[in-house]
Specification:
The chain has 442 residues and is α+β, with helices and mostly antiparallel strands. It folds into two domains: 109 residues, Immunoglobulins (Immunoglobulin-like, Sandwich), CATH 2.60.40; 297 residues, Metallo-dependent phosphatases (Purple Acid Phosphatase, chain A, domain 2, 4-Layer Sandwich), CATH 3.60.21.10. The chain is built from seven helices and 23 strands. The strands form five sheets. Strands 2, 3, 4, 13, 14, 15 and 16 form a seven-stranded mixed beta sheet that branches. A six-stranded mixed beta sheet has the order 5-6-7-8-10-9, covered by helices on one side. It has a four-stranded antiparallel beta sheet with strand order 1-17-18-21, with no helix packed on it. Helix 1 packs parallel to helix 2. The longest helix is centred in the N-terminal third of the chain and has 17 residues.
Length: 442
Amino acid sequence: MQTIKNTVKIGFSKLLSACYSAQSRICAGAKAGEMPALFKDFEPTVRFAVCSDVHISGKESVPGDEHPEEERLAKLINFMYDYSAKQRYKGFDALCVAGDMTGSGRENEYDAFNRVIKENLRSETKLLICTGNHEYIEYRDHDASLGARMFEKKIQPNQDTHAVIGGYHFILCSYSEDGRTFRAKLPWLDSEIAAAVRDSGDRPVFVFQHPAPQFTVYGSVAWGDRDITKVFRKYPQIVDFSGHSHYPVNDPRSISQNRYTALGCGTLSYFETDLDGFAGNFPYDTKQAAQFYIVEGDKNGNLRILSYDMITDSFFDNEYRLSALAHKNREYSFAKMKKRDGRPVFPPDTEVSVRLNEDGETLLSFTGAKDRFVTESYKVSLLSGIIPVKGFSFSGKYMYLFEDDRYEVNLGRLKPGKKYTACIKAMNAFAKTSKEIKYKLP
């Protein structure tokens, strides 16, 4: 095999300042371009974990198998206790699962889920769960409501939950009996949120359901629910957690603040993303997915939300600090986040290379671009002179902290003697593109 390397020198602009300031001041609003700073004297009075889309299969997890979800759920629970033990506030008050704890709603899958909970979750931690669409899959061909009955049999007698923990309200809404919509649940949901708001004053109210409110977080355009938005938009202090899409939590669009706050919870099973504006893309290494949130709240209603990656046992950079939500403080709105982000930048020492594989196909390789938040995707165009020959689009590796940020594209068999140019562009989460790298193939 032949390998040809070349270092492409490109112009670059100064990278934007680091995402998070280390200033110790109350987050009453960030200056232009800054992220909200650390709270002053923040001391939690409540702490909980949130995950979604566990998809436990009911099969025993063994090293090297394709169903590691039980192991990931157990690891999540034990990490939370390890984390809490190192903090001044030691509590781990709740584990919240926003649906799809099972693969299809079968009894043996619930048994496997319950076994993990029994073996790992301590009595002082409340388990809060709502159904997802996968809890109904086994029963859709004959009677979807049997999915609800199985949940009631194996988890709790009531599908919906309203709990108060540490002075904060937690409202979990399961699907209606059809396992697809919330229409029958909207009066209950509206009533419970209204009661929570009356009791909470300016404190946030936590709401959980499986699909995101449509047109909020990343993935909600294709996988969101429109009906629940009719309820949520009336309550600015809602902090809503959802799953269903399997889109990465470390994407800056996985938090949304318009009339209320919404967060997508990622997955413990496999990733999906958008690509070129279309949903349903499975990125490279899609099954290496195990993300969740740690949420902390203090007596004043300030929230600190951290996102964690269990594949690498490390936190992502996107830590959120929320305050004054009832007064419509919206530091993480799409417009503000987009304004803070610059364009992706290929470093000046970016290396592009080509090699031939055993089948005579040309493989183009290059190092990734840097962005303030994430580099979402790449486009590679192959030209012969000025004529486009081939085009490729693929997701970035920003959700994989264990991966080298390098990419390889199979350009196929190229005609001998022809001159080709590869044009490479990077795009971030807010559709801002990098300067194009042009690489002439030897």
